[in-house]
Amino acid sequence: MIYEQIILIAIGEKGEPLLKVIDSCNEVCLKVISTVMYFTPIGVFCTIVPVVEANGTSTIVSLAIQLIILYVAFYGFAFIVYGGAVKFFGKTSPFKFFRAIMPAALNAFGTCSSSATIPISKSCVENELGVSNQISSIAIASFAALATMAGLPAGVMGVYISINTLCDMGATCVNVIGDMAGCVVLQEKIDLK
Fold first, then answer.
1. CB 3 within 8 A of CB 11
2. Transmembrane region positions (predicted)?
């Protein structure tokens, strides 16, 4: 795709009509995606209503409790394990570490995307924590590329879709914190400053 665009730009005026078509298709795709995203909360709500109707509000209460426990586990893990690794192996204060990585952690929480957070993570560890670009470029990109998937039966997908985003926000945030903790530890062990 990039090759074709370079060729279209290189041939100049003759390639402009096709470039305009491609740009128009891109705009249509973006509009379709934004429209779907706008109506997604309504769709998710409509998938939850039958579950609540069949099981009562106990389902929502039980999911809320599960979500609270999950977040306590996520951030307990982040503060104890990653904070400990940064302190003992990375020779950096956990308070300094967590303060420095806050922009990346909040971005990961809000976007649910480790990949979208890579530039902010690199900036945090390089500018605030003194990690070299060589380490951050390799470590953050490599750690962020790892992913896992789980299969669920179709009957629970409505409930899963509604709760998964809330779970994923915390999981992605902790994942990004781990990437940056790994950078700090590697920097101390390799010392490429």
1. no
2. 28-51, 63-85, 97-118, 138-161
Residue-wise pLDDT for 73-101, tens only, equals 988 988 998 899 889 888 889 999 999 99
Quick count: other Cβ atoms within 10 Å of Cβ 166?
A: 16
Spatial separation of the C-alpha atoms in residues 142 and 45, rounded to whole Å: 36
What's the whole-model pTM score? 0.60
Cβ neighbour number for residue 71 with a 10 Å cutoff = 17
Q: Which amino acid is at 131?
A: V
- CA angle at residue 35 from 31 to 39, to 5 degrees? 170
Which among 37, 60, 17, 33 has a CA at the least distance from the CA of 158?
Answer: 60
Pairwise CA distance, residues 108 & 170, whole Å: 8
The CA distance from 121 to 104, in Å, is 5
Question: ∠98-101-106 over CA atoms, to 5°?
Answer: 105
For residue 126 the two structure tokens come to 């390089």
Tokens linked to 46: 């409509």
CA 179 from chain center: how many Å?
12
